[in-house]
């Protein structure tokens, strides 16, 4: 039973898992940044004109 005010000390396994989660998070963020398309490179979409055929 814990006394109020005492913080549980994480075990080595918990510390290793936390470090692995942080490393995975960093890898995902780095990959997302590498895959990001800069706004300047985005071209304007060409409108789909198929709907006009049905308007006649």
UniProtKB/TrEMBL annotation:
Name used for this protein in its record: Uncharacterized protein
Organism lineage: Bacteria, Bacillati, Actinomycetota, Actinomycetes, Micromonosporales
Annotated source species: Micromonospora rubida
Region (Disordered): 1-56
């Amino acid at each position: 039973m814990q006394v109020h005010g005492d913080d549980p000390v994480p075990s080595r396994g918990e510390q290793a898992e936390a470090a692995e989660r942080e490393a995975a998070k960093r890898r995902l963020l780095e990959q997302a940044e590498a895959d990001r398309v800069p706004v300047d490179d985005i071209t304007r979409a060409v409108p789909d004109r198929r709907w006009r055929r049905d308007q006649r």
